[in-house]
Write a structure and sequence with these properties.
This is DYW domain-containing protein. Belongs to the PPR family. PCMP-H subfamily. Keywords: Repeat. With 743 residues, this protein is mainly alpha-helical. Among the domains are: 160 residues, Serine Threonine Protein Phosphatase 5, Tetratricopeptide repeat (Alpha Horseshoe), CATH 1.25.40.10; 101 residues, Alpha Horseshoe (Serine Threonine Protein Phosphatase 5, Tetratricopeptide repeat); 100 residues, Serine Threonine Protein Phosphatase 5, Tetratricopeptide repeat (Alpha Horseshoe), CATH 1.25.40; 126 residues, no CATH class. It contains 39 helices and 6 strands. Strands 2-1-3-4-5-6 form a 6-stranded mixed β-sheet, sandwiched between helices. The protein is elongated and about 110 Å long. The relative contact order is 0.03. The structure holds one DNA strand of 10 nucleotides.
Length: 743
Amino acid sequence: MFVRLGNLSEAWYVFGKMQERDVFSWNVLIGGYAKKGFFDEAIELYGRMLWLGGAGVRPDVYTFPCVLRACGGLSHWDRGKEIHAHVLRYGFESDIDVLNSLITMYVKCGDVENGRVVFDGMCKRDRISWNAIISGYFENGECLEGLRLFFLMRECCFHPDLRTMTSVISACEVVGEESLGRAVHGYVAKMEYGADESVHNSLIQMYSSFGKWEDAEKVFDRIECKDVVSWTSMISGYNNNGLAEKAIETYKMMELEGVVPDEITIASVLSACASLGFLDIGVKLHELAEKTGLVRYLMVANALIDFYSKCMSIDKALEVFHQIPDKNVISWTSIILGLRINNRSFEALIYFRKMKISLNPNDVTLISVLSACARIGALMCGKEIHAHVLRSGLGLNGFLPNALLDMYVRCGRMVPAMNQFKTRKHDVAAWNILLTGHAQRGQGELAIELFDKMMGSKVNPDEITFIALLCSCSRSGMVTEGLQYFKSMKTEYSITPNLKHYACVVDLLGRAGKLDDAYEVIEKMPMKPDPPIWGALLNACRIHRRVDLGELAARQIFGMDNMSVGYYVLLCNLYSDSGKWDEVARLRKTMREMGLAIDPGCSWVEIKGTVHAFLSGDTFHPQIQEITAVLRGFYEKMKAAGYSDPEKSSIDEIEESKSEVFCGHSERLAVGFALINTAPGMPIWVTKNLYMCESCHDMIKFVSKVVRREISVRDTEHFHHFKEGICSCGDEGYGEYLENEIT
DNA sequence: AAGGGTGCCG
């Protein structure tokens, strides 16, 4: 009685008082513990029964299933094997229930082979035997063998039940058997009792994973009593098919229906908010999770980190991260990636070091860290990860090889990049990474050569391929070629140009001085131009000092309620380059009133494997006195050689520019620091988060000549390679980059 | 028995 009431301690007490304990009383107790999930206790009791039970007490057809279930639940293979021996010793080798539970035990311990041996040895089998072995194969990843047995089951005239069908449906999903999945769906629809929620839920999941979200929707709509799993399956189905808006709509409907979300629902909806940048809805979900206590689930906290990061609220993400008591790999990976996305790659590397103390990074972690290394030119750190990848064998598939390739390309190391490229089969992304590398160096000819090679290798170009290609043409002034490729996108490769391609074309024409043509492209394009398109025009107007058209572009951008500082800076530079100082002052005032802060310039330089970061106007660096002295020395020499400062006042980095002597720009500081801390003659590699200014460009050119060192500065757009007083960009921001490999 | 959080190249 007490067992049935769930009061096990009371039952144990009564059991202890009993004078005579027969098999039945042992069974009741063992079964009670096993059913409640107290598997250790159940196994312990079974042991006592054998030792203390006395001559008359032997395990029977009821005892074995209970204790085997406990072994399966704990994945105690050794114990299970021992009990298998007991089954044979006590003569139950032909009892169907006992053998069925043996199959289940082996399967749960991950040993489907021994389960199969038991199954094959049975002289009679029932539906449960078939279910046990079939779902065993599915659970252990051998879906094909499971499906084979499923067909065999029907040949043997056993009718599968709903449980069988649920596993079969998820097996179809795993092996990607869409037509079989559809057939199973048809079969289920004709089943005697009709399908239940779990069958429908797995159908939703299966169709979603095939990208057939409309079919998933049909199944979902037909479910009469949708439970939390049905709703969540549909939400994540939309999510995985890139329909985050629909995912959020579905969640709202679920709320209206009064279904209570659980931790998985919250995580899925947060993921939808993250991809859409819906800060307010996500914040509400956060509040809900706090109120209901669901934040305690690691999955929810991790989803929150990702959500805040992608909504550019990295400080909130950090707050959530630091509140997690036991962070797992995903928590760390999410915060590292979040810092990377929010332009805080330097800190991302610091978090990676901290993480490694207690946890082993996985492939996704390494991809995120490599991406951070690529942003700040942390070559040594990237190489360290490369070594780790080779040691761990993680790098053979997935995104890791391309992440390594990207890291080498962005760090300017083309030789290891090409080695990385050559060692493996390349997909579109790999080609795109190399193309992007050429675009950054303004190597239009090389980009076209590479594109031809790519076409020769039967890899289909995608939309990103054309962005890289158009970019390369634009930076090299190859207008005709660029326009030709733009046209061929649709005609030859059936890729419809998107907003980004149009932005490239506007840039292509604009940079070449064909400003009116660029404007015409914008006017005639089939979709509504977005801020980056007008931004490309504005930038072209800045280069060619066309105030009227630039103002028109700026009005369009500001009319779209855009809060990005970059466009204000561009307009400001257009005014200052054109000598319109009143307008500059007016615009700066507006910016101050709007509370728009200009991103601080930041440069990084890696010395002996350590990345050093410099902010513009940095005065706190321990070696700042020395750095300033060195730079001042060069400045004096330059002036003596007849150099005069450029007239314009750039507000790219700091408002009160100290341009007369020493502008304090971060790339200068980084170069100065590297000069002091590396051996003479050694090359210097600097990475910067904004564009280089003209005065720094002049100065570094001069420095490269005086100290006879090669200096590379990679800014957001180009690689500048300074050697003997000449820059690879040809002082135009574009030009030939001389490949010069130093590792 | 069914649903889940992190990912390269504009």
